[in-house]
Design brief:
- The relative contact order is 0.16.
- This protein has one domain: Cytidine Deaminase, domain 2, CATH 3.40.140.10.
- The N and C termini lie far apart (about 60 Å).
- Strands 2-1-3-4-5 form a 5-stranded mixed beta sheet.
- The protein has 4 helices and 5 strands.
- By secondary structure, it is of the alpha+beta class.
- The structure holds tetrahydrodeoxyuridine (THU).
- The site of tetrahydrodeoxyuridine has 14 residues, from helix 2.
């Protein structure tokens, strides 16, 4: 039997994951040793990556996902829409996006956008709305 045709959507997510891995090579993480990379695919077709940047004042650390997000807005402006997210780490550990990063992503991401990340049972892909079902979203009245 011949192999089925490769699914282009899955192939694109694999490529995004590889870009996240490459970004993790730039991690500045002397305190945790945990090297994380994130890649965002935008609706304009661009891919923007980020990595975690730690600080001796530990709480100032920025995660890879938020690093990528602020880079994307800085490059393309506030109208960006995120169509897919990939997260990778070089430590062979699970690393779904943390809660703070999910909330930050929620501002710019499409609800159905796939989020690919290393989980305890391997690489998982979940729609954004499933990893953050109740994002804070302040609707001003009037
Ligand atoms: N980190 C990320 O880059 N993304 C996350 O979603 C969670 C944690 C980073 C922050 C810190 O540099 C290291 O991982 C250990 O917490």
């Amino acid at each position: 039997m011949s192999n089925p045709e490769p699914n282009p959507a899955l192939t694109a997510l694999d490529a995004l994951l590889e870009q996240a891995r490459q970004a993790a090579l730039h991690s500045y993480s002397p305190y945790s040793g945990f090297r994380v990379g994130a890649a965002l695919r935008l609706s304009n077709g661009a891919v923007v990556t980020g990595t975690n940047v730690e600080n001796v004042s530990y709480g100032l650390t920025i995660c890879a996902e938020r690093s990528a997000l602020v880079a994307a807005v800085s490059q393309f402006g506030p109208g960006i829409r995120i169509e897919a997210v990939a997260v990778a780490n070089l430590n062979g550990a699970p690393s779904p996006p943390c809660g703070a990063c999910r909330q930050m992503l929620s501002e710019f991401i499409l609800p159905d956008a796939p989020v690919v990340f290393p989980a305890a049972d391997g690489i998982r892909t979940m729609p954004f709305s499933e990893i953050l079902p109740l994002a804070f979203d302040m609707k001003l009245k009037g």
